[in-house]
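task queued by scheduler; priority normal; single chain, no ligands, no partner chains; default sampling; output format set to structure tokens
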Amino acid sequence: MRPIRPGDRGPAVTEIRLVLAGLDLLAPAAGPDADEFDVETERAVRAFQQSRGLSVDGRVGPETWGALDAARWRLGARTLYHAVPEPLTGEDVRSLQERLLEMGYDAGRADAIYGVRTSRAVAQFQREVGLTPDGACGPHTMNALRRLGRKVVGGRPQWLRESDAIRQSGPTLVGRTVVIDPGHGGTDPGVVVPDGPLRWTEADLVHDLASRLEGRLAASGVRVQLTRGPAPGECLPDIDRAQLANALGADVFISLHTDGHANPAAEGVATYHYGTDNGVTSATGERLAGLVQREIVARTGLRDCRTHAKAWDLLRLTRMPAVRVEVGYLTSPTDRARLIDPRFRDRVVEAIVAAVQRMYLPIERDVPTGSIDVSELRAVVAASTVVD
């Protein structure tokens, strides 16, 4: 789908304007200008993207279009149930999931998809309030939800649940499954920067990073899967990358990118995790993002552009702690000089391995940033292999 952008006209623009008007982000339009993507429409799209944790570019690409389509539904406007094979999706589903999570029910991540886990949470709620536990959210269930307040206080229930799962799994990396996602690839090279006779591309650099990370993690006893090879025929959509990680039952998902900007002075590293504007977040993803960010900054000296919550499909649809790392700006001469140095890429990789290890350490046994020697992790695995 070609992004719909300012200056475009047509039925699709009319549809976009209708949804934005229904969200009170844009005044309803009539007459000959109702199908024009004008300045006011762009502002409304940007406001919508900001509120949904999407990339704020003022254009309507596949991800923004999907979010707009989901936003048509308000909780209570229709009966929700687990449909097979195409589950119901929408803003009403996400609102329901967030409500259930606030009350302490395990609906999983608030991903706006009415799947098995959400249906089970609804059924548990129905059982406890004396309704037929059919897992469908109709008028009677909605009335019961409106009457009741929070069930768990003193902490975020989902945060407690995710943290406990990490703690119960133990501190070692041996036997874990990590999916590494080199961004772009195939027909999408990502950021491209000519440099004299050379041509640096984001897709090539992040695949090299991913390959180095694969080797370091494998040496630490981790099962590793990459989402693509060095030269795929086409670019795999983010939804397919998330589904691959879910199908493999991954414990961690790491997506690697470099950034780009028209201003060559823009530089630094940023890390993203799943989260929305109203505070719903992947607790373990947020912790992993913070660890990755701090380790990379400490070990490489890249400018700290901090961690951010986003609702991108890649982060929203993965069922494990997932982060997207923008390892510097390829358009920055300073960052580019570092990124093209293999020794620098090795330091980035060691930082990510250290962050993954720290995520599994109990809080009381956590270590200072930059203190983990990745070679020691490999030595422990090698020693255990000799003993066996």
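post-processing summary
- Residues 17 and 41 are 7 Å apart (CA to CA).
- The longest strand covers residues 252-259.
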